[in-house]
From TrEMBL:
Highest taxon, organism lineage: Bacteria
SUPFAM superfamilies given in the database record: Acyl-CoA N-acyltransferases (Nat)
CDD domains reported in the protein's UniProt record: NAT_SF
Protein name (database record): GNAT family N-acetyltransferase
Origin organism lineage: Bacteria, Pseudomonadati, Pseudomonadota, Betaproteobacteria, Burkholderiales
Organism: Ideonella lacteola
InterPro entries tied to this protein: Acyl_CoA_acyltransferase, GNAT_dom
Residue ranges of domain N-acetyltransferase in the record: 1-163
Pfam family, one: Acetyltransf_7
Length: 164
């Protein structure tokens, strides 16, 4: 939970949590990205959480996978802000895709991305993800994952075929 909040919303954890990597969305969304109650709710029969252990204690990166039929929904991909840009996120994303294909037999990975995060959209496009249509959905403020700082903040869906 701490790693996810440091990656998405630096500064929330007080001193030592102010390092901002390139993936944070603090300018767009306020409040925690993940609460303890939400973290506990992630552990279901159709989910997996993959982690990379940090060499200096704590986690270096994590990702949540949820099986939805033949799709693998990827979420909470986070890397320690001090280590972002080192390839940790890319390695963990690739491991999540392999897991979904080889263990679950998923034929597609899907992810939701804040539409205004063009650099993040480009990151996923470089890894084979394609935007699903032109629709932009509303930011899910009612899900308790933070409040938009801008009116009209939107979310897009992106997909990647697995095993092709």
């Amino acid at each position: 939970m701490d790693l996810v909040n440091r990656a998405y919303r630096p500064g929330l954890g007080g001193p030592g949590h102010a390092v901002a990597g390139w993936t944070h969305e603090s300018a767009l969304v306020s409040g925690p990205r993940l609460t303890l109650v939400q973290a506990r709710g992630l552990w279901t029969a159709d989910t997996e959480v993959l982690v990379l252990d940090g060499s200096v204690g704590g986690l270096a990166a994590c990702v949540h996978l949820r099986r939805a039929g033949f799709d693998a929904c990827i979420g909470l991909l986070a890397a320690d802000p001090a280590q972002q840009g080192s390839g940790l996120g890319s390695r963990l994303l690739a491991a999540a895709e392999r897991h979904a294909l080889e263990v679950w037999g998923s034929d597609r990975a899907c992810i939701s991305v804040v539409a205004e995060r063009s650099e993040l959209v480009a990151y996923y496009q470089r890894r084979g993800y394609v935007r699903r249509g032109n629709e932009v959905g509303p930011y899910p403020a009612s899900a308790g994952i933070g409040l938009p700082r801008r009116p009209g903040l939107g979310v897009i869906q992106m997909d990647k075929p697995l095993g092709a």
